[in-house]
Task: inverse folding
């Protein structure tokens, strides 16, 4: 029964990684940049939920909606102020800017909330279910997190395939200039991508802190890096890749913690990543990117 | 229909266009010929809003479109088949064509456009579900042209449609350009294959390092000695 419990915990943690990884992977696919500030948007989202719930006593669902709206706006503002002026700059300049934005968000949070951890109240009140005569307990957090992740994933895949803005995203990710010639507003499409990614980060923040309730201004950075790893693992630019990468990463991390060593867990996760990338450099579902001639 | 006035465009540090003016009338096929680096592609990119000029004007149906962002120009009745085809390699042929109709929302009009494109390019219908990146060069060129026609433009800009194609495809592409023109669409054609371009054009302009050095009736230009020497290899 122990193994099953670990597996479910791994799936739950992996689901959070997958939701965060979506933000990385979509922005990378469409704007061809790594938005390293993405992890810190999770932290902002979690603080917003925390404040709504504890300061104003709003119900969890209302707090999450407020947080999603604010993070969506935050994502679009970050893109507009920090990244858009660099549209024609080198990748390195954009990368350094993203790291700058990441520190900016962390330091703003330090200034406002201080460095002491706050104790996050779970947004999920449901205690979960007990199976096999009480031997296998699955927490409500785990169940809701996994289901939320799957819903988001399928909704996004449907959106990209079947809607006009989704079509525009695919075109922009393939070829920006050609997309303009089709009549697609590339700037609006990139902005929408940041909006979606950041809105999802707010959800990920609430779910992450519901399972791991200690919230500090640095809460977003490690899951951010791991989710980025998950995105690369699954094949960056691919939506199903983010799901597979996220889930695998979560499972490997929890199993390594349980059976090998909790200190070594992160090292093991990254070792697996390195091995996968050695065997398949584009990630599990990654596309071979052909150089244009 | 399309009027270019005193267009000056910088490309990085170089002045790529040094104040060119020309006109395309409704129903015409106009060829823009010239050597590599003469500014042909720059001209088309500026007309379709991908590059912004330093000075000068682009007028489409008497509307100044110089400052209009590129993505808004398609719905004004202009399509651009870019140099190097630029099909969406990871999307299927069908999805590529759908992208061409991105600015259209009327379903029956889109169906009409599909029918017309498939009639001109039966090969695309056969390969409907194939990824565009797996098509041959000639097929990709057809797809790029079909994709542009999906917006049912009044005028099409074509940038080097015959580049890198086998002679059989070159003939076929020029035949299709003729058909597009016969169907009532105005064509502005940039080509290095001056012979073929002049053969189907009504009028032509010769571009040399950012200036128009010669213009006139395509048939006359074909017999012009300097043209023969410089571009027709005779």
Result:
């Amino acid at each position: 029964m122990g193994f099953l419990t670990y597996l479910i915990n791994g799936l739950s943690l992996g689901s959070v990684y997958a939701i965060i990884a979506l933000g990385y992977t979509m922005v990378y696919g469409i704007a061809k940049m790594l938005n390293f500030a993405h992890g810190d948007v999770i932290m902002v989202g979690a603080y917003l939920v925390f404040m709504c719930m504890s300061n104003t006593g709003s119900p969890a669902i209302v707090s999450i909606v407020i947080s999603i709206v604010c993070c969506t706006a935050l994502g679009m503002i970050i893109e507009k102020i920090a990244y858009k002026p660099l549209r024609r700059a080198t990748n390195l300049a954009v990368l350094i800017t993203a790291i700058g934005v990441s520190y900016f968000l962390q330091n703003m949070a330090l200034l406002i909330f201080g460095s002491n951890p706050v104790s996050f109240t779970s947004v999920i009140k449901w205690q979960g279910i007990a199976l096999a005569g009480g031997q296998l307990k699955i927490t409500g957090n785990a169940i809701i997190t996994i289901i939320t992740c799957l819903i988001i994933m399928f909704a996004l895949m449907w959106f990209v395939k079947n809607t006009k803005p989704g079509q525009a995203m695919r075109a922009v990710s393939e070829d920006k200039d050609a997309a303009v010639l089709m009549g697609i507003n590339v700037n609006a499409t990139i902005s929408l991508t940041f909006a979606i990614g950041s809105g999802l980060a707010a959800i990920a923040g609430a779910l992450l802190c519901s399972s791991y309730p200690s919230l500090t201004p640095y809460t977003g950075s490690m899951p951010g890096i791991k989710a980025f790893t998950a995105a690369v693992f699954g094949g960056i630019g691919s939506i199903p890749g983010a799901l597979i990468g996220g889930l695998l990463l979560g499972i490997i991390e929890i199993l390594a913690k349980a059976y090998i060593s909790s200190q070594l867990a992160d090292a093991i996760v990254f070792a697996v990543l390195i091995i996968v990338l050695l065997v398949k450099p584009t990630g599990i579902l990654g596309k071979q990117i052909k150089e244009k001639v | 229909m399309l009027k270019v006035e005193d267009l000056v465009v910088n490309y990085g540090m170089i002045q790529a266009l040094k104040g060119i003016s020309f006109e395309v009338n409704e129903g015409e096929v106009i060829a823009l010929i010239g050597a590599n680096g003469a500014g042909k592609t720059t001209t088309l990119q500026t007309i379709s809003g991908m590059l912004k000029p330093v000075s000068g004007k682009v007028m489409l149906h008497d509307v100044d479109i110089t400052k209009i962002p590129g993505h808004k120009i398609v719905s004004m009745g202009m399509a651009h088949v870019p140099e190097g085809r630029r099909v969406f390699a990871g999307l299927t042929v069908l999805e590529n064509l759908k992208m061409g109709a991105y600015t259209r929302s009327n379903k029956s009009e889109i169906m009409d456009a599909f029918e017309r494109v498939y009639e001109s390019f039966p090969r695309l219908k056969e390969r409907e579900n194939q990824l565009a990146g797996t098509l041959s060069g000639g097929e990709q060129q057809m797809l790029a042209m079909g994709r542009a026609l999906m917006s049912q433009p009044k005028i099409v800009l074509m940038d080097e449609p015959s580049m890198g194609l086998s002679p059989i495809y070159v003939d076929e592409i020029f035949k299709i350009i003729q058909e597009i023109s016969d169907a009532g669409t105005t064509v502005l054609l940039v080509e290095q294959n001056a012979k073929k371009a002049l053969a189907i054009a009504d009028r032509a302009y010769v571009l040399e390092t950012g200036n128009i050095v010669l213009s006139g009736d395509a048939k006359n230009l074909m017999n012009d000695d300097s043209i023969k020497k410089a571009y027709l290899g005779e």
DSSP finds ten helices and ten strands in chain B.
